[in-house]
Each structure stands twice: as structure tokens, then as C-alpha cells.
Design a protein that fits this description.
By secondary structure, the chain is mainly alpha-helical. Helices cover 67% and strands 0% of the residues.
């Protein structure tokens, strides 16, 4: 039987673990709060892996549907956030296997500063070329390296959380990050 709390605002200060327990018991508002809390970071993660906002939205939506169904399986030995990262990554990797996405776009590159109108097109073209080169370099990383790089550099997760999400050791995560950074540094050498 699905229960509803009086207002989703009442649970805003509750920890994820408690909200997950309530959601597993059928409390839709608790699950809605979890979705609200984690949707943005999961979308950023999925965009980084898939390179396409529409595919990212689909992957995150599917991940939340899967999480809702699997809440009784959630063991609370990991944070809800890292559990959702794992589900989202699995969904993204499944989508990538089914279809080949275009090169990874980067929303993290700052827009060019306004300046002299005559030099603006050249600066914009150079920045676009550098962004395209970085997108190609990221797309050239193997999936494990790319996921670790995105989780660390774009999501800011600590090594132990990345290890849990990727179901590896911290040492493996550090190795993947080292190789990813080295590959990106080599690929971006001409742009320094």
C-alpha cells in the first residue's frame, strides 16, 4: 500500500537513508525528495558519459524507475547517492552499447570573454577547436577511465566513493584516473 506524507517539504532535512527506508515502504513523497536532491548531479554524470542531453535525461529517468522498483534491495551499506550513481552508470553503459553517441560535448568550458570585436571570431574558433579536441580525447578514453574521471573531476567524488560506485578498489580508481589524466594531457598537449 502506498502512503503519502503530509508534505514533501516536511522531509527536506531528513537524511537520504531515512528517506530511502520510507520510500521502500511506499512513501512516494520521500522518493520524490530523493529524486529532487540527486537529479541534477545524476544528469551531469549521464551527460558526461553519453554526451547527449536527451539520452542523459532518458538514462536518469530509467535509473530512478529502476531504483524505485529496487528500493527493497537497497542495503544501506552505501550512501543512497553512490547507489544511484551505480544504477545510472549501468544504464548509461547499456545505452552506449546499444548505440554509438556523437563525441562528448563539454558544458564545463567557459564562454569566451567579450572583447575586441575583430579578435572575437578567432578566439571563439580557437576555443571551439580546443573544446572539440578535449571532447575527442575524452571519447577516446576507455569507459572505466572516463567514468572515474567524470566522477572525480566533474562530480567531485572522493576516491572511496568512486571505488564503491565502480565496484573496484581505491587503488584501481587512482590508477584509472592517472591513466585518464595522462592520456588527456598528451591529447591536449598542442593546446597548452
Amino acid at each position: 500500500m502506498i502512503q503519502r506524507t503530509a508534505s514533501p517539504r516536511l522531509g527536506c532535512d531528513l537524511p537520504d537513508g531515512l528517506l530511502a527506508v520510507r520510500a521502500a515502504e511506499g512513501d512516494e513523497n520521500s522518493f520524490a525528495l530523493l529524486v529532487q536532491r540527486h537529479n541534477r548531479s545524476l544528469l551531469a554524470l549521464a551527460r558526461g558519459i553519453l554526451g547527449n542531453p536527451q539520452d542523459a535525461e532518458e538514462a536518469v529517468q530509467d535509473a530512478f524507475v529502476s531504483a524505485w522498483r529496487r528500493l527493497p534491495e537497497y542495503r544501506h551499506n552505501a550512501e543512497f547517492r553512490t547507489w544511484m550513481y551505480r544504477i545510472t552508470i549501468n544504464r548509461c553503459l547499456t545505452m552506449r552499447r546499444r548505440r554509438r553517441p556523437p563525441p562528448l560535448p563539454l558544458d564545463t568550458v567557459a564562454e569566451p570573454a567579450t572583447g575586441d570585436a575583430r579578435s572575437q571570431p578567432a578566439r571563439t574558433a580557437e576555443q571551439d577547436a580546443a573544446t572539440a579536441a578535449l571532447s575527442r580525447a575524452l571519447a577516446g578514453l576507455d569507459a572505466d577511465q572516463r567514468i572515474c574521471w567524470i566522477l572525480r573531476e566533474l562530480q567531485g567524488l572522493p576516491y572511496n566513493d568512486i571505488a564503491h560506485v565502480t565496484q573496484t578498489s581505491e587503488q584501481t580508481v587512482r590508477g584509472r584516473l592517472f591513466r585518464a589524466r595522462r592520456s588527456l594531457q598528451e591529447a591536449m598537449g598542442p593546446w597548452r
